[in-house]
TrEMBL record, chain A:
Keyword line: Amino-acid transport, Cell membrane, Membrane, Transmembrane, Transmembrane helix, Transport
Any one Gene Ontology molecular-function term assigned to this protein's record: transmembrane transporter activity
Family to which the UniProt record says this protein belongs: Belongs to the binding-protein-dependent transport system permease family. LivHM subfamily.
Protein localization: Cell membrane
Top-level taxon of origin: Bacteria
Lineage: Bacteria, Pseudomonadati, Pseudomonadota, Alphaproteobacteria, Hyphomicrobiales
GO CC terms: plasma membrane
UniProt cross-references to InterPro entries, sorted A to Z: ABC_transp_permease, BCAA_transport_permease
A single BP term in Gene Ontology: amino acid transport
Listed name of the protein: Branched-chain amino acid ABC transporter permease
Transmembrane segments: 6-29, 41-71, 91-110, 140-160, 189-210, 222-248, 260-277
Length: 288, 234
């Protein structure tokens, strides 16, 4: 029963990892941009949620209605004001600029919030669970996070393949020059893609802050989980990203079941195995 | 005489340090079809990219209905009613046939062309509307590329090498359909290497050679010898 429990908990944890990864997958799919500061934006969203929850007195989950649009706005302004100027044939400038952003965000958060770990309080929801027989329990909060993760990815999938905006994303991703000849302003399209990416990051950051403690240096670790989920699932495939997150979560929990110290190592090993045998991921949609 | 739609004044274009165009001057009047011919590397596609804003150019080098558009982005120029059927079709591979057509109307310009009219013009596309554009034959892809440009209800259509890579019978059918597409006041620039085809549908021609205009004149009166001399530089 312990093994089943580990796998179930791993699946639920994978939902959170998929949220970490969805924004990365989205912007890579649209503009081939790798955002090194992605994890730091997750942490920024967690701090924004904490600030909103404590100053306005909202429940952390209700704070989503403020944090998500604010993160979306930050994403749009960041893309239009900074990142669009780095895009081109050379992949190095966006990597360097987002690395610089990562450093700035970490130090900015350190200056404002200090290095003390923080956590958001979701009240009784954090410990509420249902028993599925024996010692198999599922927490309502992890279940809610997983459900929101699936709903978010389903929403992104719908937007990508059923809406005019998604059509613009795919056209711009296919051929930027020709997309412009259709009347699409690629700077605006990229801005919207980054806004969407950081809006999803807003959800991920709040859930991170409710689930575990965080500090200004927690971003790079989330970035690695996000990368691993994207690569395991396959580049540009949103459902693949969910599958990647779940595989990562299950691997970590099985590792922890074997030895508590092996949790992260097991996740990285699963990632390396996929990279070795399926370098384009399990369900690739686009070429790197 | 009809008002000039498009005016290109002393246009120069560069790829890095390489100069591709040297002082090109031409105009296209309302409802006029102009052929731009020339050998590979003569600068025809560069001219198209400059007009559509994909290549930046200097002040007053490209004017549309008397207004300087050289500083505008390609998407802004598209919204003014300048559409291009690019060389090699260049459809969006991740979009279906129908989506490729719909996105052509992104600029939201009013006019006679819509999805139904495109399907009347090319019935085969209606049958294949849901398939990925990559699943089409070359000729069908060219129909989508033309339909996509028409969906913007343009005032001028730029055709860049529409016969390139297509079977002669497909090229023939496309040229047969061209007059019905570019009638009714729509102007066109047809960039072609097939001189006879270009002359058959155009009012005037410009022949480019190594980035310069080597010959211009009415299509009906320019002699084959003059074209050969300008085309090959002999």
């Amino acid at each position: 029963m312990d093994w089943i429990n580990s796998i179930v908990q791993g699946v639920l944890l994978g939902g959170l990892y998929a949220l970490f990864a969805a924004g990365l997958s989205l912007i890579f799919g649209v503009m081939r941009l790798v955002n090194i500061a992605h994890g730091d934006f997750i942490v920024l969203a967690a701090y924004l949620g904490l600030t909103v929850a404590t100053t306005v007195g909202l429940h952390p989950l209700v704070a989503l209605v403020i944090v998500v649009p604010v993160m979306g706005l930050i994403g749009y302004v960041l893309q239009r004001g900074v990142l669009n100027h780095t895009l081109g044939d050379d992949i190095l400038p966006p990597l360097l600029v987002t690395f610089g952003l990562s450093v700035i965000l970490q130090n900015g958060l350190l200056e404002i919030y200090s290095a003390d770990p923080q956590k958001m309080n979701a009240g009784a929801l954090e410990t509420a669970s249902m028993n599925l027989g024996g010692n198999l329990n599922i927490g309502w909060l992890p279940l809610l996070m997983f459900a929101v993760s699936v709903a978010t990815i389903a929403g992104l999938q719908w937007l990508f393949y059923r809406s005019a905006l998604g059509r613009a994303f795919r056209a711009t991703s296919d051929n930027q020059d020709i997309a412009q000849l259709m009347g699409l302003n690629k700077a605006h399209v990229f801005g919207l893609a980054m806004a969407l990416s950081l809006a999803v990051v807003g959800i991920a950051g709040l859930f991170l802050g409710i689930r575990t403690s965080f500090d200004p240096s927690a971003g790079p670790g989330r970035l690695i989980f996000g990368f691993e989920a994207v690569i395991i699932g396959g580049l540009g495939n949103l459902w693949g990203t969910l599958a990647g997150g779940i595989i990562l979560g299950i691997s970590q929990n099985i590792g922890a079941q074997l030895n508590p110290g092996w949790q992260l190592l097991a996740g990285h090993l699963a990632f390396l195995l996929v990279l070795a045998f399926r370098p384009r991921g399990l369900f690739p949609r686009i070429d790197g | 005489m009809a008002d000039p739609f498009l005016t290109v004044n002393d246009l120069t274009a560069y790829y890095g340090d390489f100069q591709a165009l040297f002082g090109i001057t031409l105009h296209v009047d309302a409802g006029e079809v102009v052929a731009v011919i020339g050998a590979n590397g003569a600068g025809k596609s560069t001219l198209m990219r400059s007009i559509t804003g994909l290549l930046s150019n200097g002040p007053d080098m490209v004017c549309w209905k008397g207004r300087n558009i050289g500083h505008l982005r390609a998407d802004q120029i598209a919204q003014l009613g300048i559409a291009m059927v690019p060389e090699g079709r260049q459809l969006f591979p991740s979009l279906s046939v129908e989506e490729n057509l719909i996105i052509g109307g992104q600029a939201g310009r009013k006019g006679p062309w819509n999805l139904e009219e495109i399907f009347k013009l090319f019935p085969i596309l209606e049958e294949r509307r849901k398939v990925p554009s990559t699943a089409l034959s070359g000729g069908q892809q060219q129909m989508v590329a033309i339909g996509r440009a028409l969906m913007s209800n343009p005032d001028i259509l730029l055709f860049d090498e529409i016969s390139l890579g297509l079977a002669p019978i497909i090229v023939k059918s496309i040229y047969e359909i061209l007059p019905s597409i570019i009638g009714g006041g729509t102007s066109a620039i047809i960039v072609e290497q097939d001189i006879a085809k270009a002359l058959s549908v155009s009012d005037r021609i410009y022949c480019l050679q190594e980035g310069r205009i080597a010959l211009e004149g009415p299509a009906a009166t320019v002699t084959r010898e003059a074209i050969s001399a300008a085309y090959f530089g002999i």
